[in-house]
Amino acid sequence: QVQLVESGGGFLQPGGSLRLSCTASGSFFDIYAMGWYRQAPGKQRELVATITNTASTDYADSVKGRFTVSRVKNTVYLQMNSLKYEDTAVYYCTANVRESISSWSYTDYWGRGTQVTVSS
Prior knowledge:
The chain is mostly beta strands. The protein is built from no helices and eleven strands.
């Protein structure tokens, strides 16, 4: 089993910055990709940013130039700058995990989420 624990959410004003962190722990062989999704009230969960184990990144158009995803081993970070009201959401960490050396399949795991609220 794999556990993902997020931290760093909070309440801040528009234009502010925040850094989210998420660490994967447990028993596994490899993590291919880690990243962040978010879900605002009344909306579907959407991709924010992902990063692979070769440092290839992908961003939602709405956050390009403002958010930066990075990764150190089994910890993924999301640096969020120039925050806007529409960035308010619960942010979920995700990891694409290969659980054992004997299996080539990967499983997606999710954290419980951390709330980010942008308000004046």
